[in-house]
Design brief:
heterotrimer, A alpha/beta (183), B alpha+beta (87), C alpha/beta (377), A: alpha/beta, Pyruvate-ferredoxin Oxidoreductase, domain 3, 7-stranded mixed sheet, 36% helix, C: alpha/beta, Rossmann fold, 6-stranded mixed sheet, 16 strands
């Protein structure tokens, strides 16, 4: 079965890296995976879409994902900028770095809080990608061990340790959440 | 060797375009007295027919010299004169 | 080893495993990360090669031409405007019969400035004497790069691997990467018909009788004709060694009993195959002939489609005529339906192909149609 994931993030938050880590984790588990950065030049600070496909079969398609089965929102502010529901398939799942959900099947995690507590900060921003990867692993049914392995092969030394920790905490803390008034 | 290769690469060799000496109407004649052995003629000759022996004697191979006169033109000593060929 | 690589990193890995000795390139998006990775490999000592930094694409190809003519396995990569800037050398290298491999990350040509894929740039190489291949996915780009060295060196013609901008170049996919020993066993030592080395002074590009030019072009025409067998042989033996055989100049997909056949090339073939599966489930007898090699052109393979309804989907257009694949295919089997789509990187996905193929099967497409019609009306 093919699962199509879209990540909405601001350039610099690590949306592309999160897609790659989850793809790598899925490959570790014997799945097929594809991680696609938003086609084009990297753009720090602007809204960036990255895509992730997971399947038990080889993945042949290369086009972008228009409506995702799983939609990850890396910053609450994104909800105010775009109508994110347009990118979600009917009955799809959202994973948010926010307090409230936006769809029936929403998962919330305080990824920014986790990143800050671990001092995962670059140029003044909390880097939420590994925490979000940990949180997304839950609905994607990827084991946290595979995510940690993928993080360890992406980063090295202390950086790998902290990022693995962020993923682990987020995996534990991510919760189903209801649509809230803030959206 | 592939058959096409001979059309693609060339090794420089004397007389590859035939007996070019037959083209000549004026022939360069070297004046040993005036020559200071700068050897510019040797470097400028497009047919590579000027040879120097013992850093002293300049020999022009008239078999292949086509009589273009470049050596005479370039010689700073006017030590090469173009002389009309006799029948 | 089963791993996750972007198309560009997979090409770099294949170049390393092919033991390329000289690499030169000038950066251009979306090619850059290929040579960035190779430069890193050289710097780390993982790849025993000379990395030559140059000031332009023209110099890049000139540098690897020099290395290749001196007997070294050499590689370069470019895209779009970079290819156009090196265009003189593209022809020179082929006419000098120098084997080398170049990755061409296909990108449209400006203006407007645009870094996304279509096949216009690659197809400007059409008549130059290069062997022109096109990958559908990251694995195929990897495999074609290794095969490219062998094929190129066997027929004394340069070889290019086309891969779509971003859809392959920057997309990470599962790739089976063989180990060095396996590649060494399959890929022979470099061979070529002539070398230019110090101490053996020869002239290339000397003036000759007009007949020399004519004879050389005739010999090239024969060599690229003969490369069909070499390509097929390489595909077969690669398949035996590594378990991946593609079918030679074309790949046939669900052609059994097909009355409708789609002809196309590149990364979007995967999306089209998914669409074909859906339509097959509904009972529509449709299949695909994927063009893997544009030169030599798979004329015998295309001929087998005679009597079928053929749709050629093009990502490049020949101004004043029709799609480039469209006109090539119709030169073999007569009239075809020709759709021009995905120009400038316009996204064409499974649903688009499904709709397109449905219209095709119900004869609602014009003979030449820019897709989707409403955008261009």
């Amino acid at each position: 079965m093919l699962t199509e994931v879209m990540i909405l993030s601001f350039g610099g938050q690590g949306g592309v890296t999160a897609a790659r880590i989850l793809a790598l984790a899925a490959v570790n588990e014997g799945m097929f995976a594809q991680a696609i950065p938003q086609f084009g030049a990297e753009r720090r600070g602007s809204l960036v879409r990255s895509y992730l496909r997971l399947s038990d079969q080889p993945i042949r398609r290369h086009s972008s994902i228009k409506k995702a089965d799983v939609l990850a929102i890396f910053a609450e502010k994104i909800l105010k900028i775009v109508e994110v529901r347009e990118f979600l398939r009917d009955g799809g799942i959202t994973v948010l770095n926010a307090k409230h959900g936006i769809a029936e099947k929403s998962y919330c995690v305080d990824a920014a809080g986790i990143a800050l507590s671990l001092n995962l900060v670059a140029a003044g921003w909390p880097i939420v990608n590994t925490a979000m990867a940990g949180a997304m692993a839950k609905p994607l049914e990827i084991s946290i061990e595979s995510v940690i392995n993928a993080i360890n092969s992406t980063f090295s030394g202390e950086l790998a340790r902290i990022n693995a920790r962020a993923a682990e905490i987020a995996y534990r803390e991510v919760k189903k959440c209801q649509a809230g008034s803030s959206t | 060797m592939s058959s096409w290769l001979e059309h693609l690469i060339a090794k420089s060799s004397e007389g590859s375009a035939g007996k070019t000496g037959l083209w000549r109407t004026f022939k360069p004649v070297h004046n040993v007295e005036k020559c200071n052995r700068c050897l510019l003629c040797l470097y400028y000759c497009p047919e590579n027919v000027i040879k120097v022996y013992h850093h002293r004697f300049i020999i022009i191979n008239y078999e292949y010299c086509k009589g273009c006169g470049i050596c005479a033109e370039i010689c700073p000593q006017d030590a090469i004169e173009m002389v009309e060929e006799e029948e | 080893m089963r791993t996750l690589l972007t198309g560009n990193y997979a090409v770099a890995e294949a170049v390393k495993l092919s033991r390329a000795k000289v690499i030169a390139a000038y950066p251009i998006t979306p090619q850059t990360t290929i040579v960035e990775k190779l430069a890193e490999m050289v710097e780390k000592g993982e790849l025993d090669a000379e990395f030559i930094r140059v000031e332009s694409e023209h110099s890049a190809l000139a540098a690897v031409y020099g290395a290749a003519i001196a007997g070294r396995r050499a590689f370069t990569a470019t895209s779009s405007h970079g290819l156009l800037y090196m265009y003189e050398m593209v022809w020179w290298v082929a006419n000098a019969r120098v084997p080398l491999v170049m990755a061409m990350v296909t990108r449209t040509i400006g203006p407007p400035w645009n870094i996304h894929t279509d096949h216009t740039d690659l197809l400007t190489m059409r008549d130059s004497g290069w062997i022109i291949s096109m990958a559908e996915n990251v694995q195929e780009a990897f495999d074609l790069t290794i095969q490219g060295f062998r094929i190129s060196e066997e027929v004394d013609l340069p070889f290019t691997v086309g891969l779509d901008a971003f859809q392959l170049s920057h997309t990470a996919e599962v790739v089976e990467v063989p180990d060095q020993q396996e590649v060494d066993e399959w890929l022979p030592e470099r061979r070529q018909s002539y070398k230019v080395l110090p101490g053996n002074a020869v002239t290339i590009g000397n003036i000759g009788p007009n007949e020399y030019t004519a004879k050389l072009r005739y010999a090239m025409a024969k060599a690229i004709e003969d490369s069909r067998k070499v390509i097929e042989k390489a595909d077969n033996s690669f398949g035996e060694k590594f378990g991946r055989k593609y079918g030679g100049l074309v790949e046939e997909y669900r052609l059994e009993g097909a009355e409708y056949v789609v002809v196309m090339a590149g990364a979007w073939c995967g999306d089209a195959k998914d669409a074909i599966d859906r339509l097959r489930d509904e009972g529509l007898p449709i299949g695909m002939m994927k063009i893997r090699y544009f030169r030599p052109f798979p004329k015998e393979e295309i001929k087998r489609l005679e009597g079928k309804e053929v749709l050629v989907v093009d990502r490049a257009f020949s101004m004043g005529y029709m799609g480039i694949f469209g006109m090539e295919v119709s030169s073999v089997i007569g009239d075809v339906t020709n759709v021009i789509a995905g120009i400038g990187g316009v996204d064409v996905g499974v649903e688009d192909f499904e709709a397109m193929f449905r219209k095709f099967a119900s004869r609602k497409l014009q003979r030449l149609e820019w897709w989707p019609r409403e955008v261009f009306s």
